[in-house]
Amino acid sequence: MIPTTINDDESGGLVVPCPISTNFRCEVQHTLTCNECKTLSVHNEFYHDLSLNFPDSMSEAAHFIEDLFENFFEDEPIDHRCEECGSTSATLSHR
Ligand SMILES: [Zn+2]
Q1: Coil, strand, or helix at residue 1?
Q2: Total domain count for the chain?
Q3: Ligand 1 centre and the CA of 16: distance in Å?
Q4: Which of 13, 27, 41, 82 can bridge 34 by disulfide, Cβ–Cβ 3.0-4.6 Å?
Q5: CA 35 to ligand 1 centroid distance, Å
Q6: Strands across the sheet containing 26-34
Q7: Euclidean distance between CA atoms 33 and 39, whole angstroms
Q8: What is the per-residue pLDDT across 35-94, written as a single tens digit (0 to 9) for each?
Q9: What is the CA(90)–ligand 1 centre distance, in A?
Q10: Ligand 1 center to residue 85 CA distance, Å?
Q11: Measured in angstroms, how far is the CA atom of residue 93 from the centroid of ligand 1?
């Protein structure tokens, strides 16, 4: 999981851990796993300048980001037709 430590020290600096520390550009690897035959289908996606409505307060923003990425990186069921067995049940995971 993503470290959730926020370094809010005397310098007033706010350090948000990777992968969102650099201009909100990141590469996410999606892995589709067939629930029937476990065939993997992997593709990469680049996110540039994610359009997010951030709260005004930095502390609120930090929590917002935590929640966002906790949800974002959770595995989720998805309808995806497997090329191997034809199953339409797969699991999408992000790394
Ligand atoms: Zn399959």
Answers
A1: coil
A2: 1
A3: 38
A4: 82
A5: 7
A6: 40-47, 26-34, 89-94, 76-79
A7: 6
A8: 999 999 998 877 666 555 666 777 887 888 788 777 777 888 999 999 999 999 999 987
A9: 8
A10: 4
A11: 16
d(CA 91, CA 23): 29
Distance CA 85, CA 7 (A): 48
Q: Ligand 1 centroid vs 81 CA: distance in angstroms?
A: 8
46 CA distance to ligand 1 middle (Å): 26
Six token digits for residue 88: 């339409």
Domain membership flag for residue 34: yes
Question: How many whole angstroms from 70 Cα to the centroid of ligand 1?
Answer: 28
Range of the domain at 33: 25-44+73-95
> Quick check: 21 and 79 in contact, CB under 8 A?
no
Residue 91 located in a structural domain:
yes
Are 6 and 63 spatial neighbours (Cβ–Cβ below 8 Å)?
no
Is residue 92 in a domain? yes
Q: What integer pLDDT is reported at residue 54 of this predicted model?
A: 60
Query: Residue 79 forms beta bridges with which residues?
Result: 89
